[in-house]
């Protein structure tokens, strides 16, 4: 069923039928807990060995962590958030100029996840952009609001630096050379999803985004400072990751799980809705070059006991990405298709 944008300003009093999940697949919000020991990492710390150890523990246990003192300026973030709100607040006529339900098209303003393929839709609108190299893509970005291109370019540049800093820490935390990930991932792409979840009349019946793992290498998420919605699956239980205004949420994508030979986890996560307020989240995805060959880092298995082997087979990111988009979002972990026998 085709759905069109839901950020219309109209407040539904009941959930339209095409968003209602079957009983067996609902958020069960009363069973979600707070994650008390969710890692909060100050990445400006000069105690490198402690920092690297914190990263290791966070990536191995949760696949998710928050960073503060991350180097992305507050003004850059504030401007990005306000231009995103302005964008979704534009008239329907203006927004529909950018609308597409073709998942291969960028930039595109769309809704749900993959509307043409899904049986049940998700309570989300999103703007998807390619952001690297900026000069190649900026001309195709929205020209309204008028400050959009300038504000988003600045944000993308600063976030990319943060991404590289974290990739270095992740490499070191696996006992690899500092530049290991950067070298393997090649000329990394950068994609952005500006997610907008309008208030939802019946949050118990639907998702903003259903459970998924991210197919890329690393995700840098800016959460709405005041509205909760992100949840992660740990030991079979859903936990809420409540926002901290000064922090980014970082998560390991499928490619870093493969490169770490499964030591680090690309964890299931989802976004739920609420009745009160719209929620904005801005996800920046660091993506391997299409031709990058992903294979479990040799030092992580080669020197180990005889039976130790790479869990995953070698593949290119292009091959992985194609497989990812040929599935439903909430099917099996996509990496299971790339296991060694
Ligand atoms: C995503 C995602 C979570 C959120 O865009 O991949 O997981 O809180 N977003 O919006
Ligand atoms: Ni995600």
UniProtKB/TrEMBL annotation:
Cofactor: L-ascorbate
GO-annotated biological processes: defense response to oomycetes
Catalytic reaction(s) noted: salicylate + NADH + O2 + H(+) = 2,3-dihydroxybenzoate + NAD(+) + H2O
Gene3D superfamilies reported for this sequence: B-lactam Antibiotic, Isopenicillin N Synthase, Chain (2.60.120.330)
Domain Fe2OG dioxygenase: 188-288
Coiled-coil residue windows: none
One of the record's GO molecular function terms: metal ion binding
SUPFAM superfamilies (UniProt xref): Clavaminate synthase-like
Pfam families documented for this protein: 2OG-FeII_Oxy, DIOX_N
Entry keyword set: Dioxygenase, Iron, Metal-binding, Oxidoreductase
Family: Belongs to the iron/ascorbate-dependent oxidoreductase family.
Name of the protein in question: Protein DOWNY MILDEW RESISTANCE 6
């Amino acid at each position: 069923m085709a759905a069109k944008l839901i950020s219309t300003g109209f407040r539904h009093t009941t959930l339209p039928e095409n968003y209602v999940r079957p009983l067996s697949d609902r958020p069960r919000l009363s069973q979600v807990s707070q994650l008390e020991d969710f890692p909060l990492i100050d990445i400006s710390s000069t105690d490198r060995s402690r920092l690297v150890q914190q990263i290791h523990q966070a990536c191995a246990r949760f696949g998710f962590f928050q960073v503060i003192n991350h180097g992305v300026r507050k003004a850059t973030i504030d401007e990005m958030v306000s231009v995103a709100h302005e964008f979704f607040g534009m008239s329907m006529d203006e927004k529909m100029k950018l609308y597409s339900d073709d998942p291969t098209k960028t930039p595109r303003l769309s809704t749900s996840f993959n509307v043409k393929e899904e049986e049940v839709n998700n309570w989300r609108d999103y703007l998807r952009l390619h952001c690297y190299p900026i000069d190649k893509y900026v001309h195709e970005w929205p020209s309204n609001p008028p400050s959009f291109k300038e504000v988003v370019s600045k944000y993308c540049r600063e976030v990319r630096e943060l991404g590289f800093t974290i990739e270095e820490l992740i490499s070191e935390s696996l006992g690899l050379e500092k530049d290991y990930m950067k070298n393997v991932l090649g000329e990394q792409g950068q994609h952005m999803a500006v997610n907008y979840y309008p208030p939802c009349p019946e949050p118990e019946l639907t998702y903003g985004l259903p459970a998924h793992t991210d197919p890329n290498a690393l995700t840098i998420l800016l959460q709405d400072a005041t509205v909760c919605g992100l949840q992660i699956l740990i030991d079979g239980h859903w936990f809420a990751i409540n926002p901290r205004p000064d922090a980014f949420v970082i998560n390991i994508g499928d490619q870093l799980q493969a490169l770490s030979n499964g030591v680090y986890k690309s964890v299931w996560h989802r976004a739920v809705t609420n009745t009160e307020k719209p929620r904005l989240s801005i996800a920046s995805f660091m993506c391997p070059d299409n031709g990058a060959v992903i294979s479990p880092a040799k030092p992580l298995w080669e020197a180990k006991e005889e039976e130790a082997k790479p869990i995953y087979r070698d593949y290119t990111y292009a091959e992985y990405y194609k497989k990812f988009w040929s599935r439903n979002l909430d099917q099996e972990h996509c990496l299971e298709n790339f296991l060694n026998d």
